[in-house]
Amino acid sequence: MVSGPIKNDMSSKSRLASPEAGAEIAAPTAPLRLQAAKWPDLLAFAIFLGLLILLVLRGASAMDYNWQWTRMMPYIVRNVDGQLIPGLLLKGLRVTLEISFFAMLIALPLGLATALLNLSKRPVSVFIARLYIELIRNTPILLQILIFYFIVAKVIGIDRWWAGVLTLALYEGAFAAEIIRGAILAVSRGQWEAAASLPLGRIDTYRFIVLPQALPLMVPPLTGVLVNVVKHSSIVSVIAIFDLTNEGRSIATDTFMSFEVWLTVAALYLIVTVSLSLVAAWLERKLEHGSST
Amino acid sequence: MNRPENDMLQSSPAIEMIDVHKWFGNFHALKGVTLSVGAGERVVICGPSGSGKSTLIRSINGLEPHDAGRITVNGFTLTENQRDLFAVRREVGMVFQQFNLFPHLTVLENCVLAQTRSRGRTREEAESIAMEYLHRVRIPEQAGKYPARLSGGQQQRVAIARSLCMQPKVMLFDEPTSALDPEMISEVLDVMTDLASSGMTMVCVTHEMGFARRVADRIVFMDEGIIVEDDVPSRFFESPTSARARQFLSQILAH
Ligand SMILES: Nc1ncnc2c1ncn2[C@@H]1O[C@H](COP(=O)(O)OP(=O)(O)O)[C@@H](O)[C@H]1O
Ligand SMILES: [Mg+2]
Protein backbone atom coordinates (compact mmCIF):
# COMPACT_ATOMS: atom_id res chain seq x y z
CA MET A 1 0.00 0.00 0.00
CA VAL A 2 2.98 2.28 0.43
CA SER A 3 3.47 2.41 -3.30
CA GLY A 4 0.77 4.99 -3.94
CA PRO A 5 -2.47 4.85 -5.84
CA ILE A 6 -1.14 4.19 -9.36
CA LYS A 7 0.08 0.75 -8.56
CA ASN A 8 -3.22 -0.15 -6.95
CA ASP A 9 -5.09 0.95 -10.01
CA MET A 10 -2.93 -1.08 -12.34
CA SER A 11 -3.28 -4.24 -10.34
CA SER A 12 -7.01 -3.72 -10.12
CA LYS A 13 -7.24 -4.22 -13.87
CA SER A 14 -7.23 -7.97 -13.45
CA ARG A 15 -9.68 -7.75 -10.58
CA LEU A 16 -12.03 -5.84 -12.85
CA ALA A 17 -12.60 -8.63 -15.31
CA SER A 18 -15.94 -10.01 -14.23
CA PRO A 19 -16.95 -13.40 -15.61
CA GLU A 20 -18.96 -11.79 -18.40
CA ALA A 21 -16.31 -9.23 -19.20
CA GLY A 22 -13.72 -11.98 -19.32
CA ALA A 23 -15.77 -13.94 -21.80
CA GLU A 24 -16.35 -10.83 -23.89
CA ILE A 25 -12.73 -9.94 -24.29
CA ALA A 26 -11.38 -13.43 -24.86
CA ALA A 27 -12.35 -13.60 -28.52
CA PRO A 28 -11.22 -10.22 -29.86
CA THR A 29 -7.87 -10.18 -28.09
CA ALA A 30 -6.89 -13.67 -29.18
CA PRO A 31 -5.63 -12.68 -32.66
CA LEU A 32 -3.66 -9.82 -31.13
CA ARG A 33 -1.73 -12.13 -28.88
CA LEU A 34 -0.36 -13.82 -31.99
CA GLN A 35 2.02 -10.89 -32.39
CA ALA A 36 3.74 -11.76 -29.17
CA ALA A 37 3.48 -15.51 -29.65
CA LYS A 38 6.63 -17.64 -29.82
CA TRP A 39 7.40 -19.61 -32.97
CA PRO A 40 6.29 -23.00 -31.53
CA ASP A 41 2.87 -21.46 -30.91
CA LEU A 42 2.79 -20.10 -34.44
CA LEU A 43 3.80 -23.47 -35.81
CA ALA A 44 1.06 -25.19 -33.84
CA PHE A 45 -1.42 -22.62 -35.08
CA ALA A 46 -0.32 -23.10 -38.70
CA ILE A 47 -0.68 -26.87 -38.41
CA PHE A 48 -4.10 -26.45 -36.85
CA LEU A 49 -5.20 -24.07 -39.61
CA GLY A 50 -3.84 -26.40 -42.30
CA LEU A 51 -5.72 -29.37 -40.86
CA LEU A 52 -8.89 -27.33 -40.70
CA ILE A 53 -8.63 -26.29 -44.37
CA LEU A 54 -7.81 -29.85 -45.32
CA LEU A 55 -10.88 -31.07 -43.46
CA VAL A 56 -13.14 -28.59 -45.25
CA LEU A 57 -11.68 -29.41 -48.65
CA ARG A 58 -11.93 -33.16 -48.09
CA GLY A 59 -15.47 -32.84 -46.86
CA ALA A 60 -16.35 -30.74 -49.87
CA SER A 61 -14.78 -33.15 -52.34
CA ALA A 62 -16.41 -36.10 -50.58
CA MET A 63 -19.79 -34.54 -51.25
CA ASP A 64 -18.69 -33.60 -54.74
CA TYR A 65 -18.90 -29.92 -53.93
CA ASN A 66 -18.35 -27.74 -56.95
CA TRP A 67 -16.20 -24.78 -55.86
CA GLN A 68 -17.09 -21.65 -57.77
CA TRP A 69 -15.08 -18.90 -56.07
CA THR A 70 -14.96 -16.81 -59.24
CA ARG A 71 -18.72 -16.44 -59.20
CA MET A 72 -18.46 -14.80 -55.77
CA MET A 73 -16.72 -11.68 -57.02
CA PRO A 74 -19.80 -9.80 -58.31
CA TYR A 75 -21.37 -10.10 -54.89
CA ILE A 76 -18.47 -8.19 -53.43
CA VAL A 77 -17.68 -5.61 -56.11
CA ARG A 78 -18.98 -5.35 -59.60
CA ASN A 79 -17.32 -3.72 -62.55
CA VAL A 80 -19.95 -1.84 -64.50
CA ASP A 81 -18.49 -0.02 -67.52
CA GLY A 82 -15.13 0.35 -65.84
CA GLN A 83 -16.73 1.65 -62.66
CA LEU A 84 -16.49 -0.34 -59.47
CA ILE A 85 -19.76 -0.53 -57.58
CA PRO A 86 -20.30 -2.45 -54.35
CA GLY A 87 -21.94 -5.85 -54.63
CA LEU A 88 -24.74 -7.14 -52.44
CA LEU A 89 -22.41 -8.40 -49.71
CA LEU A 90 -20.65 -5.05 -49.37
CA LYS A 91 -24.02 -3.33 -49.29
CA GLY A 92 -25.02 -5.72 -46.51
CA LEU A 93 -21.76 -5.01 -44.72
CA ARG A 94 -22.51 -1.33 -44.91
CA VAL A 95 -25.90 -1.87 -43.28
CA THR A 96 -24.22 -3.98 -40.59
CA LEU A 97 -21.69 -1.23 -39.91
CA GLU A 98 -24.30 1.51 -39.84
CA ILE A 99 -26.52 -0.38 -37.43
CA SER A 100 -23.55 -1.29 -35.24
CA PHE A 101 -22.30 2.28 -35.23
CA PHE A 102 -25.57 3.81 -34.13
CA ALA A 103 -26.24 1.01 -31.64
CA MET A 104 -22.85 1.59 -30.02
CA LEU A 105 -23.33 5.36 -30.10
CA ILE A 106 -26.45 4.88 -27.98
CA ALA A 107 -25.16 1.94 -25.91
CA LEU A 108 -22.19 3.82 -24.40
CA PRO A 109 -24.04 6.77 -22.85
CA LEU A 110 -26.83 4.39 -21.89
CA GLY A 111 -24.29 2.13 -20.19
CA LEU A 112 -22.68 5.09 -18.42
CA ALA A 113 -26.03 6.42 -17.23
CA THR A 114 -27.08 2.97 -16.01
CA ALA A 115 -23.77 2.46 -14.22
CA LEU A 116 -24.16 5.80 -12.44
CA LEU A 117 -27.75 5.00 -11.46
CA ASN A 118 -26.59 1.63 -10.19
CA LEU A 119 -23.87 3.30 -8.10
CA SER A 120 -26.11 6.02 -6.70
CA LYS A 121 -27.31 5.77 -3.14
CA ARG A 122 -30.99 6.08 -4.03
CA PRO A 123 -32.73 2.69 -3.91
CA VAL A 124 -35.16 3.60 -6.70
CA SER A 125 -32.30 4.46 -9.08
CA VAL A 126 -30.49 1.26 -8.22
CA PHE A 127 -33.68 -0.74 -8.72
CA ILE A 128 -34.30 0.76 -12.17
CA ALA A 129 -30.71 0.07 -13.23
CA ARG A 130 -30.75 -3.51 -11.93
CA LEU A 131 -34.16 -4.22 -13.48
CA TYR A 132 -32.95 -3.09 -16.89
CA ILE A 133 -29.66 -4.98 -16.68
CA GLU A 134 -31.17 -8.23 -15.43
CA LEU A 135 -34.08 -8.17 -17.88
CA ILE A 136 -31.73 -7.72 -20.82
CA ARG A 137 -29.13 -10.20 -19.69
CA ASN A 138 -31.56 -12.95 -18.77
CA THR A 139 -33.74 -13.07 -21.87
CA PRO A 140 -32.71 -14.19 -25.38
CA ILE A 141 -31.77 -11.35 -27.70
CA LEU A 142 -33.88 -13.00 -30.41
CA LEU A 143 -36.94 -12.61 -28.20
CA GLN A 144 -35.94 -9.02 -27.41
CA ILE A 145 -35.79 -8.01 -31.05
CA LEU A 146 -39.15 -9.67 -31.78
CA ILE A 147 -40.78 -7.87 -28.86
CA PHE A 148 -39.13 -4.64 -29.91
CA TYR A 149 -40.18 -4.95 -33.53
CA PHE A 150 -43.70 -6.31 -33.12
CA ILE A 151 -44.72 -4.43 -29.99
CA VAL A 152 -42.50 -1.51 -28.98
CA ALA A 153 -41.84 -0.27 -32.51
CA LYS A 154 -45.57 -0.35 -33.29
CA VAL A 155 -46.43 1.48 -30.09
CA ILE A 156 -43.87 4.27 -30.39
CA GLY A 157 -43.99 4.35 -34.17
CA ILE A 158 -40.45 3.64 -35.36
CA ASP A 159 -39.36 1.74 -38.44
CA ARG A 160 -37.58 -1.62 -38.53
CA TRP A 161 -34.15 -0.04 -38.89
CA TRP A 162 -34.53 1.89 -35.63
CA ALA A 163 -36.10 -1.13 -33.99
CA GLY A 164 -32.94 -3.07 -34.83
CA VAL A 165 -30.61 -0.31 -33.69
CA LEU A 166 -32.46 0.25 -30.40
CA THR A 167 -32.65 -3.46 -29.60
CA LEU A 168 -28.92 -3.77 -30.04
CA ALA A 169 -28.24 -0.56 -28.14
CA LEU A 170 -30.33 -1.73 -25.18
CA TYR A 171 -28.68 -5.13 -25.27
CA GLU A 172 -25.06 -3.96 -25.41
CA GLY A 173 -25.85 -1.05 -23.08
CA ALA A 174 -26.63 -3.51 -20.30
CA PHE A 175 -23.24 -5.16 -20.69
CA ALA A 176 -21.47 -1.82 -21.05
CA ALA A 177 -23.16 -0.69 -17.81
CA GLU A 178 -21.64 -3.57 -15.85
CA ILE A 179 -18.21 -2.96 -17.33
CA ILE A 180 -18.32 0.77 -16.61
CA ARG A 181 -19.58 0.12 -13.09
CA GLY A 182 -16.75 -2.35 -12.49
CA ALA A 183 -14.16 0.14 -13.73
CA ILE A 184 -15.57 2.91 -11.53
CA LEU A 185 -15.54 0.62 -8.49
CA ALA A 186 -11.92 -0.28 -9.24
CA VAL A 187 -10.87 3.34 -8.58
CA SER A 188 -9.70 3.27 -4.99
CA ARG A 189 -11.83 4.62 -2.18
CA GLY A 190 -9.06 7.01 -1.20
CA GLN A 191 -9.54 8.90 -4.46
CA TRP A 192 -13.20 9.53 -3.62
CA GLU A 193 -12.32 10.56 -0.10
CA ALA A 194 -9.57 12.94 -1.17
CA ALA A 195 -11.91 14.53 -3.70
CA ALA A 196 -14.76 14.79 -1.20
CA SER A 197 -12.49 16.38 1.42
CA LEU A 198 -11.12 19.13 -0.79
CA PRO A 199 -14.07 19.43 -1.52
CA LEU A 200 -15.06 18.59 -5.05
CA GLY A 201 -18.74 18.08 -5.83
CA ARG A 202 -20.05 14.71 -6.88
CA ILE A 203 -20.23 15.54 -10.58
CA ASP A 204 -16.77 17.12 -10.56
CA THR A 205 -15.42 14.07 -8.74
CA TYR A 206 -16.75 11.79 -11.45
CA ARG A 207 -15.67 14.07 -14.25
CA PHE A 208 -12.15 14.99 -13.14
CA ILE A 209 -11.09 12.22 -10.79
CA VAL A 210 -12.96 8.95 -11.16
CA LEU A 211 -13.86 8.64 -14.84
CA PRO A 212 -10.39 9.59 -16.12
CA GLN A 213 -8.94 6.82 -13.97
CA ALA A 214 -11.70 4.35 -14.80
CA LEU A 215 -11.45 4.95 -18.56
CA PRO A 216 -8.23 2.99 -19.19
CA LEU A 217 -9.71 0.14 -17.17
CA MET A 218 -12.89 -0.03 -19.23
CA VAL A 219 -11.41 0.26 -22.70
CA PRO A 220 -10.31 -3.40 -23.06
CA PRO A 221 -13.62 -4.94 -22.00
CA LEU A 222 -15.63 -2.31 -23.92
CA THR A 223 -13.73 -3.39 -27.02
CA GLY A 224 -15.41 -6.73 -26.46
CA VAL A 225 -18.78 -4.99 -26.48
CA LEU A 226 -17.89 -3.17 -29.68
CA VAL A 227 -16.95 -6.44 -31.36
CA ASN A 228 -20.10 -8.03 -29.98
CA VAL A 229 -22.36 -5.33 -31.36
CA VAL A 230 -21.00 -6.10 -34.84
CA LYS A 231 -21.53 -9.82 -34.35
CA HIS A 232 -24.89 -9.54 -32.63
CA SER A 233 -26.16 -7.14 -35.28
CA SER A 234 -26.78 -10.19 -37.48
CA ILE A 235 -29.92 -10.65 -35.39
CA VAL A 236 -31.59 -7.88 -37.41
CA SER A 237 -31.91 -10.44 -40.22
CA VAL A 238 -35.03 -11.74 -38.50
CA ILE A 239 -36.86 -8.46 -38.91
CA ALA A 240 -36.02 -8.40 -42.61
CA ILE A 241 -33.20 -5.88 -42.55
CA PHE A 242 -30.71 -6.71 -45.26
CA ASP A 243 -27.48 -6.69 -43.32
CA LEU A 244 -24.42 -8.76 -44.18
CA THR A 245 -25.87 -12.00 -42.79
CA ASN A 246 -29.22 -11.59 -44.48
CA GLU A 247 -27.63 -10.74 -47.83
CA GLY A 248 -25.46 -13.81 -47.42
CA ARG A 249 -28.49 -15.96 -46.77
CA SER A 250 -30.38 -14.71 -49.79
CA ILE A 251 -27.35 -15.14 -52.08
CA ALA A 252 -26.74 -18.65 -50.75
CA THR A 253 -30.38 -19.55 -51.39
CA ASP A 254 -30.28 -18.13 -54.90
CA THR A 255 -26.97 -19.60 -56.03
CA PHE A 256 -26.48 -22.77 -53.93
CA MET A 257 -22.87 -21.67 -53.35
CA SER A 258 -23.28 -22.05 -49.58
CA PHE A 259 -19.60 -22.77 -48.82
CA GLU A 260 -18.26 -19.78 -50.74
CA VAL A 261 -20.97 -17.41 -49.52
CA TRP A 262 -20.78 -18.24 -45.82
CA LEU A 263 -16.98 -18.35 -45.78
CA THR A 264 -16.90 -14.96 -47.49
CA VAL A 265 -19.42 -13.56 -45.03
CA ALA A 266 -17.33 -14.91 -42.15
CA ALA A 267 -14.19 -13.34 -43.61
CA LEU A 268 -15.93 -9.96 -43.92
CA TYR A 269 -17.08 -10.09 -40.30
CA LEU A 270 -13.57 -11.08 -39.22
CA ILE A 271 -11.96 -8.20 -41.10
CA VAL A 272 -14.20 -5.76 -39.27
CA THR A 273 -13.91 -7.26 -35.80
CA VAL A 274 -10.16 -7.84 -35.93
CA SER A 275 -9.60 -4.27 -37.18
CA LEU A 276 -11.69 -2.98 -34.30
CA SER A 277 -9.63 -5.00 -31.86
CA LEU A 278 -6.41 -3.63 -33.32
CA VAL A 279 -7.63 -0.05 -33.06
CA ALA A 280 -8.72 -0.70 -29.48
CA ALA A 281 -5.36 -2.21 -28.57
CA TRP A 282 -3.64 0.86 -29.94
CA LEU A 283 -6.03 3.13 -28.02
CA GLU A 284 -5.46 1.16 -24.83
CA ARG A 285 -1.69 1.54 -25.13
CA LYS A 286 -2.12 5.24 -25.72
CA LEU A 287 -4.39 5.69 -22.69
CA GLU A 288 -2.05 3.73 -20.47
CA HIS A 289 0.86 5.83 -21.60
CA GLY A 290 -0.90 9.13 -21.14
CA SER A 291 -2.03 8.37 -17.61
CA SER A 292 1.22 7.87 -15.75
CA THR A 293 4.15 9.57 -17.44
CA MET B 1 -27.31 25.95 8.50
CA ASN B 2 -26.65 28.26 11.36
CA ARG B 3 -23.82 30.67 10.78
CA PRO B 4 -22.79 32.39 14.01
CA GLU B 5 -22.34 36.13 14.24
CA ASN B 6 -18.82 37.39 13.70
CA ASP B 7 -18.14 38.23 17.32
CA MET B 8 -19.27 34.77 18.35
CA LEU B 9 -16.74 33.23 15.96
CA GLN B 10 -13.93 34.34 18.23
CA SER B 11 -15.30 32.62 21.28
CA SER B 12 -16.95 29.54 19.81
CA PRO B 13 -14.66 26.55 19.25
CA ALA B 14 -13.50 25.58 15.77
CA ILE B 15 -14.69 22.02 16.31
CA GLU B 16 -17.29 20.95 18.80
CA MET B 17 -18.27 17.29 19.18
CA ILE B 18 -20.95 16.47 21.72
CA ASP B 19 -21.73 12.88 22.69
CA VAL B 20 -20.95 11.50 19.24
CA HIS B 21 -21.75 7.87 18.53
CA LYS B 22 -20.88 5.74 15.55
CA TRP B 23 -21.84 2.17 14.77
CA PHE B 24 -20.47 -0.08 12.03
CA GLY B 25 -23.30 -2.57 11.91
CA ASN B 26 -23.40 -3.91 15.45
CA PHE B 27 -19.95 -2.65 16.27
CA HIS B 28 -19.98 0.45 18.46
CA ALA B 29 -16.93 2.36 17.16
CA LEU B 30 -17.48 5.72 18.89
CA LYS B 31 -19.19 5.51 22.26
CA GLY B 32 -20.13 9.04 23.10
CA VAL B 33 -17.19 11.24 22.23
CA THR B 34 -17.17 14.82 23.43
CA LEU B 35 -14.35 17.00 22.21
CA SER B 36 -13.89 20.69 21.72
CA VAL B 37 -11.04 22.23 19.71
CA GLY B 38 -10.52 25.99 19.90
CA ALA B 39 -9.45 28.12 16.94
CA GLY B 40 -5.68 27.88 16.55
CA GLU B 41 -5.44 24.92 18.87
CA ARG B 42 -3.30 21.87 18.00
CA VAL B 43 -4.69 18.57 19.22
CA VAL B 44 -2.92 15.24 18.82
CA ILE B 45 -5.01 12.08 19.04
CA CYS B 46 -3.33 8.84 19.96
CA GLY B 47 -4.33 5.42 21.14
CA PRO B 48 -4.05 1.77 20.23
CA SER B 49 -4.95 0.50 16.79
CA GLY B 50 -8.70 0.04 16.36
CA SER B 51 -9.55 2.46 19.16
CA GLY B 52 -11.56 4.71 16.82
CA LYS B 53 -9.06 7.49 16.06
CA SER B 54 -9.68 7.41 12.31
CA THR B 55 -13.41 7.13 12.80
CA LEU B 56 -13.35 10.18 15.05
CA ILE B 57 -11.25 12.39 12.79
CA ARG B 58 -13.15 11.28 9.68
CA SER B 59 -16.45 12.15 11.31
CA ILE B 60 -15.28 15.75 11.67
CA ASN B 61 -15.57 16.34 7.91
CA GLY B 62 -18.38 13.86 7.40
CA LEU B 63 -16.37 11.20 5.59
CA GLU B 64 -17.74 8.87 8.24
CA PRO B 65 -21.26 10.10 9.03
CA HIS B 66 -22.03 9.88 12.75
CA ASP B 67 -25.15 8.17 14.03
CA ALA B 68 -25.88 10.18 17.16
CA GLY B 69 -24.65 13.34 18.85
CA ARG B 70 -23.73 16.67 17.38
CA ILE B 71 -20.70 17.89 15.43
CA THR B 72 -20.23 21.57 14.69
CA VAL B 73 -17.32 22.92 12.66
CA ASN B 74 -16.79 26.66 12.40
CA GLY B 75 -20.43 27.15 13.25
CA PHE B 76 -21.78 24.69 10.65
CA THR B 77 -23.55 21.70 12.12
CA LEU B 78 -22.97 18.47 10.21
CA THR B 79 -26.21 16.93 8.99
CA GLU B 80 -27.01 14.53 6.20
CA ASN B 81 -27.75 17.55 4.07
CA GLN B 82 -25.19 17.62 1.26
CA ARG B 83 -24.95 21.39 1.36
CA ASP B 84 -24.01 21.48 5.03
CA LEU B 85 -21.47 18.78 4.35
CA PHE B 86 -19.98 20.78 1.50
CA ALA B 87 -19.94 23.92 3.65
CA VAL B 88 -17.99 22.12 6.38
CA ARG B 89 -15.57 20.54 3.94
CA ARG B 90 -14.78 23.92 2.42
CA GLU B 91 -13.34 24.92 5.79
CA VAL B 92 -11.62 21.65 6.63
CA GLY B 93 -8.60 20.14 4.92
CA MET B 94 -7.69 16.50 5.31
CA VAL B 95 -4.43 14.60 4.88
CA PHE B 96 -4.51 10.81 4.64
CA GLN B 97 -2.10 8.06 5.55
CA GLN B 98 -2.03 6.91 1.91
CA PHE B 99 -1.61 10.49 0.50
CA ASN B 100 -4.40 9.87 -2.05
CA LEU B 101 -2.95 12.17 -4.67
CA PHE B 102 -4.70 12.03 -8.03
CA PRO B 103 -2.32 9.86 -10.07
CA HIS B 104 -3.51 11.07 -13.48
CA LEU B 105 -2.85 14.74 -12.66
CA THR B 106 0.45 16.53 -12.21
CA VAL B 107 1.41 17.92 -8.83
CA LEU B 108 0.33 21.39 -9.94
CA GLU B 109 -2.98 20.12 -11.34
CA ASN B 110 -3.59 18.24 -8.09
CA CYS B 111 -3.33 21.58 -6.31
CA VAL B 112 -5.26 23.64 -8.86
CA LEU B 113 -8.34 21.53 -9.63
CA ALA B 114 -10.48 22.09 -6.54
CA GLN B 115 -9.50 25.75 -6.37
CA THR B 116 -10.97 26.41 -9.80
CA ARG B 117 -13.96 24.08 -9.41
CA SER B 118 -15.02 24.82 -5.83
CA ARG B 119 -13.44 28.16 -4.94
CA GLY B 120 -14.25 29.90 -8.20
CA ARG B 121 -10.66 30.98 -8.82
CA THR B 122 -9.25 31.54 -12.27
CA ARG B 123 -6.57 29.19 -13.46
CA GLU B 124 -3.88 31.87 -13.09
CA GLU B 125 -4.87 32.69 -9.52
CA ALA B 126 -5.09 29.02 -8.63
CA GLU B 127 -1.68 28.27 -10.12
CA SER B 128 0.01 31.10 -8.31
CA ILE B 129 -1.59 30.04 -5.02
CA ALA B 130 -0.57 26.45 -5.71
CA MET B 131 3.03 27.48 -6.34
CA GLU B 132 3.02 29.50 -3.15
CA TYR B 133 2.00 26.45 -1.10
CA LEU B 134 4.33 24.13 -3.00
CA HIS B 135 7.08 26.54 -1.91
CA ARG B 136 5.87 26.28 1.65
CA VAL B 137 6.12 22.50 1.59
CA ARG B 138 9.49 22.91 -0.18
CA ILE B 139 8.85 21.15 -3.49
CA PRO B 140 8.03 23.84 -6.06
CA GLU B 141 10.42 22.17 -8.48
CA GLN B 142 8.18 19.06 -8.65
CA ALA B 143 5.12 20.98 -9.89
CA GLY B 144 5.15 19.47 -13.37
CA LYS B 145 5.65 15.86 -12.31
CA TYR B 146 3.13 13.11 -11.82
CA PRO B 147 2.75 11.79 -8.25
CA ALA B 148 4.13 8.35 -9.10
CA ARG B 149 7.49 10.01 -9.78
CA LEU B 150 7.77 11.37 -6.25
CA SER B 151 8.93 9.73 -3.04
CA GLY B 152 6.41 9.04 -0.30
CA GLY B 153 7.55 12.04 1.71
CA GLN B 154 7.25 14.30 -1.30
CA GLN B 155 3.80 12.93 -2.12
CA GLN B 156 2.59 13.59 1.39
CA ARG B 157 3.91 17.15 1.27
CA VAL B 158 2.05 17.67 -2.01
CA ALA B 159 -1.08 16.32 -0.33
CA ILE B 160 -0.63 18.88 2.44
CA ALA B 161 -0.11 21.66 -0.11
CA ARG B 162 -3.18 20.53 -2.05
CA SER B 163 -5.29 20.89 1.09
CA LEU B 164 -3.74 24.22 2.06
CA CYS B 165 -4.51 25.67 -1.38
CA MET B 166 -8.17 25.63 -0.38
CA GLN B 167 -7.20 27.84 2.57
CA PRO B 168 -9.08 25.81 5.17
CA LYS B 169 -9.56 26.98 8.75
CA VAL B 170 -8.94 23.51 10.15
CA MET B 171 -6.52 20.78 9.05
CA LEU B 172 -7.08 17.12 9.88
CA PHE B 173 -4.25 14.58 9.66
CA ASP B 174 -4.86 10.84 9.91
CA GLU B 175 -1.50 9.17 10.57
CA PRO B 176 0.25 11.25 7.90
CA THR B 177 3.63 9.61 8.44
CA SER B 178 2.61 5.99 9.06
CA ALA B 179 3.01 4.93 5.41
CA LEU B 180 6.41 6.57 5.06
CA ASP B 181 9.88 5.12 5.14
CA PRO B 182 11.61 6.29 8.35
CA GLU B 183 14.00 8.67 6.59
CA MET B 184 11.08 10.62 5.11
CA ILE B 185 9.10 11.11 8.28
CA SER B 186 10.90 14.23 9.45
CA GLU B 187 10.44 16.18 6.20
CA VAL B 188 6.68 15.78 6.62
CA LEU B 189 6.71 16.53 10.34
CA ASP B 190 8.78 19.67 9.66
CA VAL B 191 6.11 20.94 7.28
CA MET B 192 3.43 20.18 9.86
CA THR B 193 5.40 21.97 12.56
CA ASP B 194 5.66 25.04 10.31
CA LEU B 195 1.95 24.89 9.76
CA ALA B 196 1.31 24.67 13.50
CA SER B 197 3.42 27.73 14.17
CA SER B 198 1.46 29.65 11.54
CA GLY B 199 -1.57 29.37 13.80
CA MET B 200 -3.54 26.72 11.92
CA THR B 201 -6.13 24.76 13.87
CA MET B 202 -4.93 21.17 13.67
CA VAL B 203 -6.22 17.78 14.70
CA CYS B 204 -3.66 15.10 14.13
CA VAL B 205 -3.78 11.38 14.66
CA THR B 206 -0.17 10.30 15.03
CA HIS B 207 2.14 8.02 16.94
CA GLU B 208 5.02 10.48 16.60
CA MET B 209 5.27 11.32 20.28
CA GLY B 210 8.21 13.70 19.80
CA PHE B 211 6.10 15.76 17.43
CA ALA B 212 3.15 15.58 19.83
CA ARG B 213 5.24 16.83 22.72
CA ARG B 214 6.71 19.71 20.70
CA VAL B 215 3.62 20.86 18.82
CA ALA B 216 0.45 19.80 20.58
CA ASP B 217 -1.50 22.00 22.94
CA ARG B 218 -3.46 18.94 24.03
CA ILE B 219 -3.16 15.20 23.73
CA VAL B 220 -6.30 13.13 23.41
CA PHE B 221 -5.92 9.46 24.25
CA MET B 222 -8.57 7.07 22.93
CA ASP B 223 -9.32 3.47 23.70
CA GLU B 224 -12.24 1.31 22.56
CA GLY B 225 -14.24 4.19 21.16
CA ILE B 226 -14.01 6.58 24.08
CA ILE B 227 -11.72 9.44 25.03
CA VAL B 228 -9.82 8.20 28.06
CA GLU B 229 -7.55 11.21 28.59
CA ASP B 230 -7.52 14.75 27.32
CA ASP B 231 -4.66 16.77 28.77
CA VAL B 232 -1.70 19.03 28.04
CA PRO B 233 1.35 17.10 26.78
CA SER B 234 3.45 17.60 29.90
CA ARG B 235 0.87 16.03 32.19
CA PHE B 236 -0.10 13.35 29.65
CA PHE B 237 3.47 12.16 29.22
CA GLU B 238 4.65 12.60 32.83
CA SER B 239 1.63 11.49 34.77
CA PRO B 240 -1.09 9.79 32.76
CA THR B 241 -4.04 9.06 35.00
CA SER B 242 -5.35 5.88 33.37
CA ALA B 243 -3.66 2.52 33.36
CA ARG B 244 -4.45 2.11 29.68
CA ALA B 245 -2.63 5.31 28.76
CA ARG B 246 0.36 4.29 30.88
CA GLN B 247 0.49 0.92 29.16
CA PHE B 248 0.15 2.56 25.71
CA LEU B 249 2.94 5.03 26.46
CA SER B 250 5.29 2.40 27.76
CA GLN B 251 4.75 0.34 24.63
CA ILE B 252 5.15 3.18 22.17
CA LEU B 253 8.11 4.81 23.89
CA ALA B 254 9.91 1.48 24.16
CA HIS B 255 10.57 1.59 20.42
N1 LIG C 1 -15.97 0.78 7.43
C1 LIG C 1 -15.91 0.01 8.53
N2 LIG C 1 -16.72 -1.06 8.66
C2 LIG C 1 -16.68 -1.82 9.75
N3 LIG C 1 -15.88 -1.61 10.80
C3 LIG C 1 -15.05 -0.56 10.74
C4 LIG C 1 -15.01 0.30 9.61
N4 LIG C 1 -14.08 1.26 9.82
C5 LIG C 1 -13.56 0.99 11.03
N5 LIG C 1 -14.13 -0.08 11.60
C6 LIG C 1 -13.83 -0.64 12.90
O1 LIG C 1 -13.94 0.37 13.86
C7 LIG C 1 -12.90 0.29 14.80
C8 LIG C 1 -12.16 1.60 14.86
O2 LIG C 1 -11.49 1.80 13.63
P1 LIG C 1 -10.56 3.03 13.36
O3 LIG C 1 -11.29 4.27 13.68
O4 LIG C 1 -10.02 2.90 12.00
O5 LIG C 1 -9.40 2.78 14.43
P2 LIG C 1 -7.98 3.45 14.54
O6 LIG C 1 -7.87 4.53 13.49
O7 LIG C 1 -7.91 3.97 15.91
O8 LIG C 1 -6.98 2.35 14.32
C9 LIG C 1 -12.02 -0.87 14.39
O9 LIG C 1 -12.34 -1.98 15.18
C10 LIG C 1 -12.39 -1.12 12.96
O10 LIG C 1 -12.30 -2.50 12.68
MG1 LIG D 1 -6.58 4.69 11.81
Q: How do the SSEs of chain A run, as a string of H and E?
A: HHHHEEHHHHHHHH
Q: How are the strands of the biggest sheet of chain B laid out side by side?
A: 6-7-8-3-9-10
The name CATH uses for the topology of one domain in chain A is MetI-like fold
- Largest sheet geometry of chain A: 2 strands, antiparallel
Q: What is the name of the CATH superfamily of one domain in chain A? A: MetI-like
What separation lies between the terminal Cα atoms of chain A?
20 Å
Proportion of beta-strand residues of chain B: 15-25%
Helical segment tally of chain A? 12
**Percent of residues of chain A in helical segments?**
over 70%
> Spans of chain A of 5+ residues with little confidence (pLDDT < 50)?
1-34
Query: What number is the mean pLDDT of chain B?
Result: 93
- Count of strand segments of chain B: 10
Largest sheet of chain B: 6 strands, mixed
Structural class of chain A: mainly alpha
- Count of DSSP E strands of chain A? 2
Listing every helix as H and every strand as E from the N terminus to the C terminus, the arrangement of chain B reads: HEEEHEEHEHHHEHEHEEHH
Q: What kind of oligomer do you see?
A: heterodimer
The largest interface is: A-B, 27 and 32 residues
Task: Give a description of the structure.
The complex is a heterodimer of chains A (293) and B (255). Chain A has 293 residues and is mainly α. Chain A has a domain at 90-292: MetI-like (MetI-like fold, Orthogonal Bundle), CATH 1.10.3720.10. Chain A has 12 helices and 2 strands. A two-stranded antiparallel sheet of chain A has the order 1-2. In chain A, β1 (77-80) and β2 (83-86) form a beta hairpin. In chain A, α2 (19-33) packs across α10, α2 crosses α12 (258-292) and α5 packs across α8. Chain B has 255 residues and is an alpha/beta fold. Chain B is built from 10 helices and 10 strands. Chain B has a 6-stranded mixed sheet, with helices on both faces. In chain B, α4 (107-118) packs parallel to α6 (152-164) and α5 (123-136) packs across α6. Chain B is globular, with a radius of gyration of 18 Å. In chain B, 49% of the residues are buried. The model of chain B is unreliable at 1-9 (pLDDT under 50). The site of adenosine-5'-diphosphate has 11 residues of chain B, from β2 and α2.
